[in-house]
Amino acid sequence: MIVVLLGLIGAGKGTQAKMLVESNDFLHISTGDMFRDAVKNQTDLGKIVEGYMNDGALVPDEITIKMLLERLASSQSSNDLLLDGFPRTTAQCDALDNALVTNNLEIDCALNIDVDENILLDRIAKRASIENRQDDDPEIAKQRLENQRTTLQEVANYYDQKNKLLKVDGLGSVEEVHQRVLSVLEKKGS
Ligand code: AMP
Q: Probe ligand 1: pick from 16, 18, 29, 35, max atoms within 8 Å of CB?
């Protein structure tokens, strides 16, 4: 099963991804984590993407798609795949579909974890103080949220048109949301 996890910043994508990896043994690929690692290790890629991330902007498609496709190519042996934070533009959706099709694969579903934006800003502020994530600074977070709203809608529409979009209510405890995610995936798989 190949699942795309969608949600605005702070919607709990990362947490739900980790829980799914534990419960269903998905291979988790997070472009945000990959970029953060690159910045932390100050690799060539990290030096290029740092500015975009600190500005709350998306990293250009060309860079992001290349990184993701290389990562996918090195992990073809795994069947169950959880993509977290990718795709975020329709160009990324197309690139992903094209890459999968050449391997006779396709996305099974896109799960959109849905949370009200005011609640998101609150959550992000809390995470910023706990994890000291520079891109969670309230001003940057607001910018990211605004940038993401439009692009998320585009990506959600993309999968909706293919009848692959599934919505999950992201309010409630982490465990409650996890159970909703599992039940949606079970229905999809059955
Ligand atoms: P995330 O942890 O998924 O919110 O990603 C953190 C940051 O990494 C984003 O704000 C972007 O700057 C960058 N990023 C992650 N995934 C993508 C993507 N698919 N396309 C462009 N930029 C991305």
A: 35
